Amino acid sequence: MGLVLLRFFESAPAALAVGLLLLPLLIKESGERYKPVIALLAALRAITGFLLLIAIARSIIPTQRSIDLSMLVEFTFGTVVGKAWLATQLLALLFAALAISRVFIRSNLLDRATLLSGFLVIASVSVTGHAIDDSLPVWTQISFLLHTGAGLTWFGGLLGLVWWMMTARGKPPEQARQLAERWSLVAKVAMAIVVASGIALAWENVASFPNLLATPYGRLLTLKLLSLCAVLLFALALARYITRVPEGTFDEHWYGRVGAAEAAFAVVLLFLAGWIAVITPAAHETDLYWPLPFRLSWAATWGYKVPMWSDVWWWGVVGLALVVAAGAIWWIPRLNQWRRFATPATAFAGFVCMIVSLSVQAYPDTYADPTQDYTAESIARGYDFFKGNCTGCHGASGDGNGPMAKDLKVPPADLTAPHVGTHTIGDIFHWLTFGGQSGVMPAFAEQLSGDDRWDLINFLLVLSNTNQSRFLSPKGVIQWLVAPDFALVDPKDELTTLFKLRGTPTLISFADCRPGKDRVEGLDESLTLAAQTARENGARHVTIYKGDCPADAKGIGASHPKAVEMAYSILNRYLDEPVSQEIPEGHFLVDRSGFIRARFRHFTPDDGSVAALRSQIMLMAKEPIVIINLHSH
Hints:
This protein has 633 residues and is an alpha+beta fold. The chain contains 20 helices and nine strands. It has a seven-stranded mixed β-sheet, with helices on both faces. It has a two-stranded antiparallel sheet with strand order 1-2. The chain is globular, with a radius of gyration of 32 Å.
């Protein structure tokens, strides 16, 4: 909290100084009475900067190490954070020097140079926060500068405007009105920049709507948005006053009081912004806690074939009817006398009904992040846990027909059915931890550790795809099936996982070349054709072979071939064929983003399979890369 307060008291004086520099220029006022105050504020910003350095160093350097002058010098010149602070502090010192000079020197050029340096100081506030992350895209780093620069300009100008209005004794009403009108234009431009850059930053740092409530960063951002809404409501009141007040009159005290209320929420907003700047962004947060007993999901409600006359259906239909009624009340002339209150009330009721229609039950773990990556190795471990704990009810294949199923009051869920995809992985983790929704499935928190439960969930994710994966064929499908990651054998230690091959189409080939009666006819020729086609068309080739397969058909190997074969065998299901944990021969084509898009059983020179593989590789090579979450479900 100390760092948060320092960031607030670092930003606020500089912002007010810039506001007091800017406002007189809008009405060509001398601004002499503000010069000592601006100088004091600029000096305070420079002094606070040194305290901020100590606080930043203390938050990074281990507590067992003391911080002295030599340590601060080393930290300042030896770290990226220190160098960023140094750049901003040099700007602050320049701003302070120019502001103090204005007290003794009258010069329009000096005034403009001071204002410019002030803009640079407030815009660079973010450089010592999240904007320092050099892994962020350039547009995000620019958004940080625009966001803080425009936001603090608006904040400082608003405080200065309130000050001017509260002390406007003897000022002509025309001058007060002119200042209000011109400042209103500046504020609108600044707020437009704040909103546009804020959306860009939220996209990068929050990553999803659930994170607005499931993370500390998101909850603070939500409070910040509520404060912004309050600010905009007061700003609307001020803007309406300017357009309605008669010429030659202007109530500076009323305008100042409403502006002060707006400024109070602006102070809260600035404090929250400083707090947000020193905590982990929501997109990088691992400790997720969902505070509501419901969540909104199109996939789990209307996207899952809502039956007519069900609760979800009724809420949705009523909500739509109320929205239509709100429109009718507004547009039908006969109802105009009620529209001011009836329209928003009816529209709000319709909105609530639509929210209820899209709501499904949620838990504190609903948006929990997995501790185990979505890998073939994890899936193989999860399969072992499934066999040991779940097959009695859900069956060996997960379709809900285990030997104990007939004795249960509530039938076990079919884990291969499409409905599994309507739940979050956090929901499943919650049920494994505390027991299922029906009360029949027991809790497994004592039998399985947290990591074990996430391994089991990874297996269930693959299992839930089997109904759709049975229709994979040489003809490419849309992007929906994420390829389980796995470790690769690479002597150079560059291509260490399948995920590292992202950016190039990859053919994953499985084959059993061991001698025996079940050996696929023409297997060697098929594997050679697959390798040649992948190589000639610029695709990577990963091979999981058993036995003596052709040497020229081998590609990059897997570190744990048994686990990889087991995981991909779940996706290698075919209609009306028995389930097998082995793949005599199979080829999966993974696109540049990491999705399995096509599957081949066998290659021969004259059946068109080679041409199909070639065309799919060439097509996928031209597609853009989509950044995916390996736990997309």
